Amino acid sequence: MRTWPALEIQQAAADTLDLIQAFLTDFDVAAIDDNVPELPLVFFHDAAERDRVAAALTAAFPNVV
Question: What's this model's pTM, rounded to 2 decimal places?
Answer without folding.
Answer: 0.87
